[in-house]
Amino acid sequence: MSKTVAVLGAGVGGLTAAAELRKALPAEDRIVLIDRSFTGSLGLSLLWVLRGWRTPEQVTVRPTAGTLPGVDMVTAEVAGIDLEARAVDCDPAGHIGYDALVVALGAGLDVARLRGLPQALQAGVAGQFYTLEGAADLNRRVGALESGRIMVLVAAVPFKCPAAPFEAAFLIGDQLGGRFTSGAVRVDAFTPDPLPMPVAGPAVGNALVDMMDGKGIGFHGGKSAISIDPQTRTVDFADGSTESFDLLAVVPPHAPGAAVASTGLGSAGWIPVDPASLATATPGVFAIGDSTALLLPNGKPLPKAAVFAEAEGEVAAHQVARYLGYAAADSRFTGDGACYVELGGGLAAKGEGNFLTPPAPQVTLREPSAAYHSEKEQQERDWLARWNVRS
Fold first, then answer.
1. What is the pLDDT of residues 66-93, one digit of tens each?
2. Own/partner pairs, 322-327, CB within 8 angstroms, 24+ separation
3. Which residues, 6+ apart, have CB-to-CB distance to 211 below 8 Å?
4. Cis omega before residue 283 (within 30°)?
5. Contacts of 92 by beta carbon, 8 Å cutoff, 6+ apart
6. FRET pair for 357, CA 20 to 30 Å: which of 99, 139, 311, 368?
7. Is-contact 188 152, C-beta < 8 A?
8. What SUPFAM superfamilies does the record tag this protein with (predicted)?
9. Cα 242 from chain centre
10. Contact 162, 196 (CB under 8 A)
11. Residue 383 belongs to what H/E stretch?
12. Which of 376, 368, 379, 357 is nearest to 12 (CA)?
């Protein structure tokens, strides 16, 4: 009797899981990939749109039947997940039953969670770079600023791509050029964390602070924003301080979507998973990527990053096949990962290591080089070529 596997979300993890499932399962089994639009991009591309090195159209990923042969692609909004009935409620596709499920719905932007942020975005005194359109708009606003202060603000943790805010600060300074080097426009980064990328350890965080200092970018750790006043262009922080800005480049608060929260698997909405197999507490249900809460040996969550989502997608596919009774590889998530920190001028640093090493992640930040920038460009080319083949 044929079986059905539902994969929710066509981001990096979901696409990888669906493709790997098709290899691992018999042809008579159905694989259903459900996504609201089948349109996306890599996170690294968003930063290059922010810098003005890419246009949104150049880096948009639109997978088709030609790139996912043998996978049913259903365009629909996932409204809810009924674990007891083993069904997904989709709009407008209705109920889709499953024998096994892979949740890869990512993390959404919860702009309203920070008081005043929706109004600041609407007024144009703030912009965000976590969507293609937002990154392109922020690029234009940076280009138009002749003097003043640009604040790069992490509104809340956790958020996608732990290096992104600091890359954004570097790239904004690079775009400003003489306006930045002359001091006409200042760039400062604010985050609730004590250091950048805290899960990677203090050595990595302090190295990034030193890099920012070397470029003339101010770093302000331990700053939790509680409200924004778009009229006065100020941010109030939990420590009682207030900081002013002329342009705010914000990482909005992130939140699990309603469908992810509807599973009831995690008290905060994020789905707890076994670090090795990506299995949830419900048999036959696996979760990968940004929608998960994968705890490391030191008790901190694994950072939300595409490199992990892709690796988890392969592991989850093999574990689903084994759960369904097939002779698939007993793959395990290793925790190995790397990310690049773009500094501008064709240079990038590279952080790499293992995040599941006890008692804490072992991560090294490599010195900036043109070679790492080229590696990052190749990642983008490979991903676009893989998924943008037309049917």
1. 999 999 999 999 999 999 999 999 999 8
2. 323/100, 323/283, 323/284, 324/3, 324/5, 324/25, 324/29, 324/99, 324/100, 326/24, 326/25, 326/26
3. 170, 341, 343, 349, 368
4. no
5. 76
6. 368
7. yes
8. FAD/NAD(P)-binding domain
9. 29
10. yes
11. helix 370-387
12. 379
What is the Cα–Cα distance from 200 to 363, expressed in whole angstroms?
A: 6
Specify the 3-state DSSP secondary structure of 172.
Answer: helix
What 229-238 contacts at long range (C-beta under 8 Å, 24+ apart), as own/partner pairs, is: 229/116, 230/116, 230/119, 230/120, 230/122, 230/123, 230/125, 230/126, 233/125, 235/151, 235/153, 235/190, 237/190
pLDDT in tens, 28-46: 999 999 999 999 999 999 9
DSSP conformational letter for 241? -
* Contact (Cβ atoms closer than 8 angstroms) between residue 189 and residue 163: no
Domains, the chain, in order of start with CATH, read 4-36+76-107+256-323 (3.50.50.60), 111-254 (3.50.50.60)
SS (H, E, C) 202-227: HHHHHHHHHHHHHHCCEEECCCCEEE
